[in-house]
Amino acid sequence: MTESSSNPTRANAAPLTASYPELVGKVVVVTGAARGMGAVFVEELARRGVHAVGGDIDGDGMAALADKINSGAAEGAGRVLARRTDVTDPDDHDALLAAGLEEFGRVDHWVNNAGVFPQAGFTDIPPDQVTATYQVNVNGVVYGGQTAARHLRRHGGGAIVNMASVAGVRVRVTRAAYNSSKAAVRHLTSCMAVELGPDDIRVNAIAPGFVDTEMTRWVREDPAALDRALSTVPLRRVGAPVEVFGALQFLLSDSARYITGAVLPVDGGSQHV
Ligand SMILES: NC(=O)c1ccc[n+]([C@@H]2O[C@H](COP(=O)([O-])OP(=O)(O)OC[C@H]3O[C@@H](n4cnc5c(N)ncnc54)[C@H](O)[C@@H]3O)[C@@H](O)[C@H]2O)c1
């Protein structure tokens, strides 16, 4: 029995060995990168010699993470540039791109990862929750995608990856605003893939299931909620952010060069339950 299967609340965060040499020296923008999956993405990219531009509304947290990664970096590692970024503001995306271009001279790929996960029974959802959720989870992807696409068009192509969720296809009760926002991300991914394909810009999404981050900590700490959540995971354990990174680096790599408009589930099988 593996450690993760003996304790389903403990994700299998063992390092992944796969890396893609063609990504070394490339520059990837990641939004929502101060913590959670985004933080693991920039750290794992840098470890593999890929530069990352991390944008987060928590500017101090983003800066602290970049300092930590850069100061402990091995020879040949990529560097992480931090910028305070609010994904609901289109100008912030432009500023994030400009910062990456100024620092590294290029931006090759873009990851729309920032998201919020509010809770309320359907009839109790306050109007500002709907607005805030859609602004971050949907508008943030539109604005980030626009900035990325305008640049990548000039750059000769590249990859965009949007963060969807299993909640975009399976109902998670008391999460209607979130679920529907992630359904929108799935369809946006199709729209973007079709319009941007002729410019050699590939647009894909990752649909994580139940992943071990701050966003889901309350579930792991509530035994009844945890039981319910794990009953919808055929692999019967929580996922680790690094397991989502495995899908991300594949989608950014040349191995995925004929893949666009795909939504790749990384969910232990949850989409089927
Ligand atoms: N954790 C899961 O189980 C899970 C499952 C499916 C999908 N997702 C999605 O994956 C993505 C990352 O989730 P996570 O679990 O790492 O979340 P997290 O809450 O740990 O981190 C989200 C990050 O986004 C940042 N952010 C929030 N609003 C922002 C804004 N307006 N502008 C810029 N940054 C902002 C936060 O400061 C934070 O650093 C999200 O889109 C989330 O919806 C997560």
Automatic annotation (TrEMBL):
Keyword Ribonucleoprotein appears in the UniProt entry: no
Family annotation (SUPFAM superfamilies): NAD(P)-binding Rossmann-fold domains
PROSITE patterns assigned to the protein according to its UniProt record, in alphabetical order: ADH_SHORT
Alphabetic keyword roster: Oxidoreductase
Record family assignment: Belongs to the short-chain dehydrogenases/reductases (SDR) family.
NCBIfam families membership: PRK07231.1 (NF005559)
Identification of the protein by name: SDR family oxidoreductase
